[in-house]
Structure formats: C-alpha cells, structure tokens
Amino acid sequence: MSMVLSNNTIGVYIHVPYCIRKCRYCDFVSFERPPEEGYFAELAEDIKAAENASVNGIEHYVDTLFFGGGTPSLASRAQLETVLGSVRGSFEMADGAEVSIEVNPETVTKQKAADLKELGFTRVSMGVQSFDDAVLKAIGRIHSAERARQAFKILRGAGFDNINLDLMFGLPRQSADGAPGVQDLGIWQETLDEAIDLGPEHISFYSLQLEEDTPLWAAYRNGAVRLPSWEENRAMYHHAVAKLREKGYNHYEVSNAAKPGFECRHNLRYWSMQPYLGFGISAHSFMPVFSEDGRFAGGYRGEADWSKADPFDGLQKESLTDLKGDFIFTQLRLIRGLDTGFYRQLFGTDLAEEFADPLEKLASEGFITVSDGRVVLTPYGLDNTNPVMQELLYALL
Ligand code: SF4
User: Fold this and answer.
1) Any bridge partners for residue 144, and if so which?
2) Quick one: which atom of ligand 1 is closest to the CA of 140?
3) Domain extents for the chain?
4) Which of 38, 127, 193, 212 is the most buried (most CB within 10 A)?
5) In contact, 126 and 163? CB cutoff 8 Å
6) Rounded CA gap, 272 and 330, in Å?
C-alpha cells in the first residue's frame, strides 16, 4: 500500500538548547546553563506567529509534537507549560497526538515525571547511551547506570507507557582494551540486554559519530582514546538488530526499533516527507508546496524566521530535484524501504524508470533489492548507506 501524504496534519519540533554539562561527543547546539525564561517566552511568541503565517492557507492539525534538545527535561513545569499552551492555543491538536519529550536520567524525579504526565506528554525518550559506568564516564555523561535504571522505574511509575531508550555503540571501552580486531561485544551486549529487560516500547541504537572539535574527537586524535574498529562497530550493530528482532521489536529504521505500534510517529514524519515546523535555535522546518493536482511543486526547508510576515522568506527553496534527493535519502532509511508508489504520487514520475541504471547497478552489487514497488537496503546496504545514497543522488545531477 502506498503512503498517503497527509497535507492537513503537521509535526511541531521545539528545541530546548540547555544542558547541565556537555557530553564529550556532542556537537548539538546546547549551552551549559539553566534554561532562560526569555527563551520560552520567545518560543511561545514564535509559535503564535506561525499560526497564520505557516501553512499555505490550509487548516492544520498537530499530530506530533516533539521537545528535543539539549535537555528539555531541564525546563521547569511553567516553562514547558508556556510552550505547550502556545501550541495548543495556536493549532488544533489532533486526537491521540503524540507528544514527546527527551529527558536526561539525572533530571528525572518523581515530581518531574508527574509534571510531564500532567502536562500531557504521551511519550518520553530517555538518553541512556550505556549501562556501563566506565563507558558513561568516558563519554562524559552526567548520570550513572543506576540513575538511568531508577529514572526508568520512576517514569513507569508515573504512568508512561511509551518510553524510548537511546543507546549508543561504537564507544570507547566497547572493544577489548587496545587489542585490534577483537570481537568483544560484551559491554554492548550487556547494555542492550539490560535495556531490553527493562521493557521499553522503543529502543534507538546509534553508532557514535565522531564530530570534529569535540573533546572525544581530540582525545581520539591524540591517541588518548581508542574506538572500536569498523568490523567491531558492525558486529555490534548486527548483534543489536538480531537481538531486538528476537525480542519482539520491529526494526523499522536503520537505527530504531519498536514494539509493534510504538514506532516514533514524529520521526516517521522526517523519513516520509511530511511537513513539520521547528521552533527555537537551529530548529528546522519543512513545508512542501503542492500543485493543483496534489503533487509536490517545491518546498521550503531550513530555520524559519517567525518574526517575519513570511517566515519562509529567505529560506532555502527546494526544487523538485532537491525534494527527490530528500525523498531517497530519508525513505531508504526505512527498513521496509523506499515506496515507489508514494514517489509517483508526490512527483508524478516513475522512480524505477528515472533511476533504472543506478538501481540495476546497486542491485547487482548486492546493496539493494527492488521488488513489489519497493527499493530495500540489504544487510550489506545497511552497512554501506553512503555509496548507495551517492549513486542514487548522482543520477539526479
Ligand atoms: S545531553 Fe544531549 S544535547 Fe546535552 S550535551 Fe549530552 S548529548 Fe549533547
């Protein structure tokens, strides 16, 4: 079945750029200071300004709302209330909307969990990364493994029945000390097992990306830190995929698995070309523009300036070629693969014909399979997404 692009629902992303202390691998926009009142007041104003300006004259229902960071759980109840009130006052909320917030275990108290529940959050995403204290210390996390365990229980106790745990692999200490090529998955296996034993509805498992100019990058460069090899990294990934599937999780995106029905609807928007509005520092929006026949005619992507009469004015305009590139880049991340029927619906052309040569080449090299209207990454393709994307995107030039 092809996907239907819903043009009257919208996602809203709120960026809360404050953290207690920077993690050693982090290059997200976040500041080591307490959340500032003025920032939340501005968010509320921007959201109000978006009410009229945003959305092509179509009435939109917010069906996913996501507070990300930074550490949104550092915000006070009143600060969160200000922003939530503004969203609810400016947009209709769809019935059963998914309302998510990212939390750091160190910030989770009984009171905080009760506040989040009362404020109407339906989903909590907790950054755990590892259940090994030495690993947590090596990557500069502020919490211990025990604190993460407690926080999970507190959230459950407060009634949250949709919890994600973020885990990371490819971290310092996850390979056997100093020995090259060792397939010592022990620490990662234990973290994964412990996460699964807690029984969250959703688990994200991302490989560490060593970002330039972070303390971890510097430590790696000067030899103070050793990271797992590519083979070790892939062994950790394959182990996670197999284990999560064995335990009843649906591996639905390269780095995400969920119990059936608990896939993150907000993130699925990003991977399915659905519109969303971003508020706060470095928060991006995506607004497709449709032609009269309901197909994509173009779009806007980037950091909107909500103080302007036309907030998208000055944003990068997306051509159809850009949008096709986005489509390939995002849809291929889904394990069910890229939907050619959806592509035809959006662009009015046949992807299999348009990309016949690269698709044939990639299939013959074992990166993808093409069948039943879907282009799907093979396990080999999942380990090598960059060459696949490059080959397909090159065909757009
Ligand atoms: S808590 Fe998240 S946003 Fe904050 S420093 Fe750590 S990784 Fe970065």
Assistant:
1) none
2) 6
3) 9-268, 326-397
4) 127
5) yes
6) 7
